[in-house]
Design goal:
Elements (H helix, E strand, L loop, with lengths): L1 H31 L9 E2 L10 E14 L5 E4 L18 E4 L5 E12 L6 E18 L5 E4 L15 E18 L2 E4 L2 E23 L4 E24 L4 E25 L5 E29 L4 E22 L14 E19 L1
Antiparallel strand pairs: 1-9, 2-5, 2-15, 3-4, 3-7, 5-6, 6-8, 8-10, 9-10, 10-11, 11-12, 12-13, 13-14, 14-15
Amino acid sequence: MKWNKSVNSALASSIVALSLTGQIEAGMNSEHKPKDSFAFAFPKDVNLVDPNDIYFYVAGLAMQASEGGLEYGIQNDNGSVTNGSGGSAIPLKHGYVLNFDWNYNPGVRVGLGGYIDHDAWNLEGNWTWVHFSNYTSNETPATSIVIPLWMTGGDSAPASFGNGANAGWRGQYNQVDLWMGKPYHISRHFVMNPVLGMRFGFIDQTFRVDYGGLNFRSKVYTTNNFYGFGLRAGVNSEWIVNKDWRFFGTAAGSMLRSHIHAKERFSVPSGTNSPTTSYIDETIWDNIPVLDLSLGLQWGMFFNCERNYVAVRAAYEFQEWFDLFYVRKIYNGGFANSNGFGNEALRTDFSLNGFSLAVQFDF
């Protein structure tokens, strides 16, 4: 009986000691354990079961391409001119600039990427293609006149002005990006992915304008072929709303060593209205900066027992290619120098902005 009392007393003392020790350790751990909302700097994980760490995506694009400096005329409604048959284009009373409406055009983007074991780095390559075309025409009222901004039609005003004009602009856009990034969580709901890589760009443009009048037609035809390559750096980010939804954004800049080949043809009536054709062929090398911005919304879900993941992404994108278009404007008539001939080198920006809708598969 005494032995049982001794055993019971020893067991009770041990239980009390263990309980106090556990409470002390729990209190110490609770003081130093970080809050979930402040966890940071751990690699992004798609959380697939037995993953291959590879993904690919296909996107459809609706892009509005535009080029600066392609205004091709001014319609002057001064009420005193009859379609270039007499009078003067000056003073300019009710003039407005003739330009393109900049249509939305189709395109496609295809990408392939993956994650490697070395610190969960992210590698990706993608190709973007857009075909763009715009056409516009203008027929002036009887008391109006078109003042050409690219070429005038005769040797002296007012025969150098017309009663109408039409213009066209079209081309192909090809872009290849290769980059490496390191996606990591700043917090549980915010992911940053700084990226560094290469960009290759190929952009071909054709611009033409046809000025018409009672006694003449004057035409301008230009081609501008660009290719460039260089470094691209930026950051991709994700704002995680819940398991299925998230916002994402991109901001990046590039500097490309670029080759531009410009060819121009001018067809102008002489004093007897017989056409005279002139040609210009010019090649330049330059450094072209490029800016990319995008913002979008993503929905995704796991399937195949969480071995695969599919996501649908919708975004609005901006691209600005600075000083991409290179051409010379030739004047022949009332707005040139004393010899009726002028020369102006024109450098303008190429822009892309529009919508993308992508489907991505992770496996």
